[in-house]
Amino acid sequence: MSETQQDERYSRQRDIVPAERIAQCKATVIGVGAIGRQVALQLSAIGIPWLQLVDHDKVEWSNLAGQGYLEADMGKVKLNATLDLCWRINANSQIHAVPERFRRSMEIGNVVFCCVDSIQVRQLIWGAVADKVLFFCDGRMSAEVLRILTAYDSNSRYHYPKALFPAEEAYTGSCTARTTIYCANIAAGLMLAQFTKYLRQLPIDCDIQLNLLASELSVGGV
Question: Can you say whether residue 123 is alpha, beta or left, with left for phi > 0 and alpha for psi between -120 and 50 degrees?
Answer without folding.
Answer: alpha
